[in-house]
Amino acid sequence: MATTTRQASKTITMPSAPEESVSEPVTQRKRVDGGRFRLQVDRQTKASYATYEAAEKAGLVIKKEHPILQVAVSDGVEGVNKIIELP
């Protein structure tokens, strides 16, 4: 029976973490800009607007082109969602 000898084990030292901190974590999703009213299509946030009227106008355009989609405007401050219906 042939015996094989193992080589001595080696120790690997990892370099220390860089001292610079990462300011923003890397994510797959794009962060929505800071508007108060968010336009949501099928519960996915698509855009952000400063006024409710601007968000509702953009939502109506989408709803007219694709009536089967659920389009809503969400108020980030008050936490209220309003679903856009065709007139």
Provide a compact summary of the structure.
The protein is α+β, with helices and mostly antiparallel strands and 87 residues long. It has one helix at 52-65; strands at 37-41, 44-49, 71-75, 80-83.
Question: What does this entry look like structurally?
Answer:
With 87 residues, the chain is α+β, with helices and mostly antiparallel strands. The protein is built from one helix and four strands; from the N terminus they run ββαββ. It has a four-stranded antiparallel beta sheet, covered by helices on one side. A hairpin with a 2-residue loop joins strand 1 (37-41) and strand 2. It is elongated, with a radius of gyration of 26 Å. The relative contact order is 0.16. The mean pLDDT is 84.
Defining traits:
4-stranded antiparallel β-sheet, 87 residues, alpha+beta, 1 helix
What's the N-to-C terminus distance?
Answer: 88 Å
The overall pLDDT average reads 84
CA-atom Rg in angstroms = 26 Å
Please state the structural category.
Answer: alpha+beta
- Unreliable stretches, pLDDT < 50, 5 or more residues? none
Tally of strands: 4
- Name the helix and strand elements from N-terminus to C-terminus, one letter apiece: EEHEE
Give the strand order of the largest sheet, numbering strands 1, 2, ... along the chain: 2-1-3-4
**Percent of sequence in beta strands:** 15-25%
* H/I helix tally: 1
Largest sheet descriptor: 4 strands, antiparallel
